[in-house]
Design brief:
The chain is an alpha+beta fold. The protein has two domains: about 35 residues, no CATH class; about 90 residues, Lrp/AsnC effector binding domain/regulation of amino acid metabolism (RAM) domain (Alpha-Beta Plaits). Helix content is about 30%, strand content about 20%. The protein is built from five helices and six strands; from the N terminus they run αααβαββαβββ. A four-stranded antiparallel sheet has the order 2-3-1-4. It has a two-stranded antiparallel sheet with strand order 5-6. The longest helix is centred in the N-terminal third of the chain and has 13 residues. The two termini are about 35 Å apart. The model has no long low-confidence stretch (mean pLDDT about 90).
């Protein structure tokens, strides 16, 4: 495994100069390693972790538990990939337990998310049931605390 990966997970800083300095390597060596990690799809992209309460972006997020009927040849994979291709879907995971897929979706309004679930997701042949949970307030995202003790600012928004 590349020595870059743990550092990238900790810092999320793709700057080759800074990474090279921390690792004690040449910048060119780090650039080659980063390019190889991109080429073999180990690194898929970079996303900042933003506190939604500090940004102007209004977004509604929901978590959906989906029960599906596995297909004879494709098992759960074909259905999971089909669901994952929707623009509204942020993440999709195969789960064990009371449901098969855990799907994170987002939209501009509560109504747009609800319509996506009821008209597009739940109507797919092979989807047996859905249970939707709207996210009200985030407290921790990707190992980062978003809310500090004593900083309760009234009612949590429905969008997160």
């Amino acid at each position: 495994m590349s020595s870059l990966i743990p550092l990238l997970l900790e810092t999320a800083d793709p700057c080759p100069e800074r990474l090279a300095k921390i690792l004690g390597k040449d910048k060119e060596e780090v650039e080659r390693e980063l390019e190889e990690l991109r080429r073999d799809k180990t690194i898929l992209g970079w996303m900042p972790i933003l506190n939604p309460e500090k940004t102007d972006e209004e977004k509604v997020r929901a978590v959906i538990e989906v029960k599906i009927s596995p297909e004879r040849e494709g098992g759960f994979d074909r259905m999971a990939l089909r669901i994952s291709k929707f623009e509204e879907v942020e993440s999709c995971y195969l789960m064990s337990g009371g449901y098969d897929l855990l799907v994170f979706v987002s939209g501009k309004t509560l109504n747009s998310v609800a319509l996506f679930i009821s008209e597009r997701l739940a109507t797919i042949e092979g989807v047996l049931s859905t249970a939707t949970h709207f996210l009200l307030r985030p407290y921790k995202e990707q190992s980062h605390l978003l809310v500090q003790e004593g900083s309760s600012e009234g009612k949590p928004p429905v969008s997160a």
